[in-house]
Design a protein that fits this description.
Elements: E1 2-7, E2 24-25, E3 28-29, H1 30-40, E4 45-50, H2 54-68, E5 71-76, H3 84-89, H4 92-97, E6 102-107, E7 110-112, H5 114-123, E8 131-136, E9 152-155, E10 161-165, E11 173-182, H6 185-194, H7 200-209, E12 213-217, E13 223-225, H8 229-240
Parallel strand pairs: 1-4, 1-6, 4-5, 8-12
Antiparallel strand pairs: 2-3, 6-11, 7-13, 8-11, 9-10, 9-11
Protein name: Choline kinase
GO molecular function, one term: nucleotidyltransferase activity
Keywords: Kinase, Nucleotidyltransferase, Transferase
Length: 244
């Protein structure tokens, strides 16, 4: 398996002068943690999509490769002013060159309990749909999540995604920012771009119509999105509690 990590954002809410994926927590950057954790669960190749602060990621690359003895590629998205779907599409050439039928996708500023990743790898193994999204059940275990910022998901009794977005009123799951995608997903992204739609959620909505977007429930493990100073502090607290 192989992993695409999106790290192109402009850091408007947590601007430390470096990409959020290079923020250090407990002596390890979020990017280094991703590579360590996903490699543990069988990922062989990594593709980092850079944008804002790309030179910092390039500077970090030799150390990442040496520390993890990993196959890591950085591709630059020069349109990082657009939404995250455009960054996903930047990985198309890497996926095609490596003849990947499917791949994992996550965000450089997210953080997962390693066992969360392991559960998703196992549960998403039989890939029957173009898109599988790791979701969590809203509850006390993830009460630290920023409810105003998290992407919400409504799924049916079979796990198919019925709606997704940050502002939807009816939802029963949280989007955790971890996907498994078939390579055909790039055709869907291109259709979205043709309509000036650049978010991942907008492409998920197109897949929903053909019952090709399914959720994978992973609960009981901690995860967080380190998007702003409050998220950073909640993540540090979770680490102090040995939950990450």
């Amino acid at each position: 398996m192989n992993l695409v990590i999106l790290a192109a954002g402009k850091n408007t809410r947590l601007d430390t002068g470096i990409p959020k994926s290079l923020v250090t927590l407990n002596g390890e950057t979020l990017m280094s943690r991703h590579i360590r954790v996903f490699k543990k669960h069988g990922v062989k190749k990594f593709c980092i999509i850079s944008g804002y602060g790309s030179e910092k990621l390039q500077e970090a690359l030799p150390k990442l490769k040496k520390t993890h003895d990993a196959d890591i590629t950085i591709l630059h998205n020069d349109r990082f002013d657009l939404e995250n779907g455009f960054s996903v599409f930047r990985a198309k050439e890497w996926v095609e060159e490596n003849e990947m039928g499917d791949f994992f996708l996550t965000m450089g500023d997210h953080i997962f309990d390693p066992e969360f990743v392991g559960e998703f790898v196992k549960k998403s193994d039989a890939l029957e749909n173009v898109l599988q999204l790791a979701v969590d059940m809203p509850g006390e275990s993830n009460s630290h999540i920023d409810i105003d910022d998290v992407t919400k998901v409504q799924v049916d009794e079979n796990g198919f995604i019925d709606s997704i977005g940050k502002t939807i009123e009816k939802y029963n799951r949280y989007d955790t920012g971890l996907f498994r995608l078939k390579s055909e997903v790039f055709d869907v992204f291109q259709k979205s771009f043709d309509q000036k739609e650049y978010t991942i959620s907008e492409s998920v909505s197109k897949l929903m119509a053909g019952r090709q977007a399914k959720s994978v429930l992973v609960e009981g493990y901690t995860w967080n999105d380190v998007d702003n100073p409050d998220d950073l502090q909640s993540t540090i607290k979770l680490m102090d509690q040995d939950r990450l």
